[in-house]
Amino acid sequence: MTSRRDFLVATGSLAGGIGLVFAAGGARATPASMQQAIGKVVGGSPVRRGKVKLDIPPLIDNGNAVPLSVAVESPMTPADHVRAIHVFTEKNPQPYVVSAFLGPRSGRASIATRVRLADTQTVVAIAELSDGSFWSDRKAVVVTLAACLEEL
Prior knowledge:
- The protein has helices spanning 4-14, 18-25, 31-42, and strands spanning 47-49, 52-55, 59-62, 66-72, 82-89, 96-101, 110-115, 121-129, 134-145.
- The protein is α+β, with helices and mostly antiparallel strands.
- The longest helix has 12 residues, at 31-42.
């Protein structure tokens, strides 16, 4: 069955609406695009589970303003600290959601913000430590009213 979006994209491209094809295509993120975004951050380094605690509600009524916090176990000393915290999503138009760059003078390795979620999906938080290692946590989030996507 053809969706309304696919129908409008097809008819728009037949009528010369090439810009509509590119605009609609950009909103179709996939888990593979999230893995590509993570790869750009970590390079070829392994990402281990642990040290990172991602706190996000498992069920969201409205994806427009979802509270999210990330904390990392670290003494935050000059020799051992968190350099950055990155958050990724698998179904948002842009999988790379936010990055926070920290140093030993930050005191705590934690961030809190609100994000928009386009659909039910997995959210991944990755911390880069001063020794070059990467640690992560991931959570599945069910979104009943999606954000980030507009109906055509």
